Amino acid sequence: MPADPGDAEPQESPAVAAFLAERRADVLRRAIETLETCSTADLAGEAHRLAGTLGVFGLDEASAAARALMAAARSGPSPDMSRELAATLEVLRGNAASLQGRGPG
Amino acid sequence: MTDTILSIDDDQDIRDLISLALTEAGYRVVSASDGPSGIAAYHANQPDLIVLDIGLGAMDGLEVCRQLRAVGTTPIVFVTSRAEEVDQLVGFAAGADDYLTKPFSPRLLVARVGTVLRRGRGAEQPKTRFEAGPLTVDVESRSATVDATELDLTRTEFDLLVMLMDNPRRVVSRQALLEGVWGSWYGDDHVVEVHMSRLRTKVKAAGGPRIGVAVRGVGYKLGLEPALE
Does the beta-carbon distance from A19 to B16 stay under 8 Å? Predict the structure, then answer.
């Protein structure tokens, strides 16, 4: 079971903290869509971008998974890349389900 | 007057977050989602600082940075997922003033933006006039006076005096004086004492106080209280 995302809230202002909490579900949904639809050639670049964005929104586990996917995808299609893609999607979906269970904030 | 920040990032979530964090910190924020619209927004808004993503697509942030550097000196802070040292070096080579890697916290971004803005202002307006006790130095006219008496200083003596006046409450090391006045010096650092001694003598002869007080093993201090600004 994935760790509950977004628990380690940095000491941001209330407005920024609320924004981060509100957007997490959307950020995860878009990340899942991106990884499900992007081409193999774009996978490393997209995973790289997502690693940064997910981390900024406090989704550390998802960010780490995206970073591992980026590393695996850098050298092109391989069984390792496919495994990492599946693992990353599992983490993202798990995070999304966890957030949905908690409700906003 | 409120500073304007231009944020150029192709990620809507990051753009919105940067905009919120900087607006909350009191800045006016203008956003753009790609290189060409970012450059257009720069010309339309003349921002005080630019927060620029590197991975922007067809025209990446490095190219945007180069184009902006060709037309101005507005500070640029890169915000990017590229965390390798070589990426940062490339960013600085392209003209960045600071570099923040994703993931970053909005608080850190706000702090960096504030620091770069302050640094830029300091660089824009170097101090050109110094006063301490009866001594006055005007860098632009390269004149130094003790009360109304003009000092006849060599270039080296004048530059030494400026360095002391610019750091009135600090001991300025010999090394700092060598680098600041001579640029590079590979010989004996007693050259500093020789010129400092001549400077002291000229100030004294004009009726001034003893300046350039030696601090053993370290360097020199002005030895006068600066005038209040």
Answer: yes
pLDDT, tens digit, 9 for 90 and up, residues B170-201: 888 888 888 778 876 666 778 899 999 999 99
End-to-end Cα spacing for chain A: 20
Compute the residue count for chain A. 105
Q: Could you tell me the residue range of the domain that residue B208 belongs to?
A: 129-221
Name every chain A residue with its beta carbon within 8 A of the beta carbon of B81.
48-49, 51-52
**Cβ neighbours, 10 Å, residue B136:** 18
pLDDT digits (tens, 9 = 90+) for B77-127: 999 887 777 777 887 888 889 989 888 889 899 999 999 998 877 665 667
ipTM of the complex: 0.82
Q: Which amino acid is at B60?
A: D
Q: Which two three-digit tokens encode residue B133?
A: 């006790």
CATH number at residue B173: 1.10.10.10
Residues in chain A closer than 8 A to B108 (CB atoms)? none
Distance from CA of B104 to the nearest CA of A (A): 6
Buried b (16+ CB within 10 A) or exposed e, B3-39: bbbbbbbbbebbbebbbbbbebbebebbbbbbbeebb
Specify if B151 maps to a domain: yes
Domain annotation covers residue B33: yes
A 10 A CB-CB count for B73 gives 12
Q: In this complex, is the C-beta atom of B103 within 8 Å of any C-beta atom belonging to chain A?
A: yes
Counted domains in chain B = 2
Candidates B55, B60, B3; CA nearest to B36 is: B60
Q: Which of A11, A12, A63 sits opposite B103 (nearest CB)?
A: A63
Burial class (CB in 10 A: 0-12, 13-18, 19+), A17: middle
Q: Measure in Å the smallest separation between the Cα of B20 and chain A Cα atoms.
A: 7
CB within 8 Å: B16 and A23 = yes
Interchain contact A36–B (C-beta under 8 A) = no
Residue of A16, A23, A52 with shortest CB distance to B24: A16
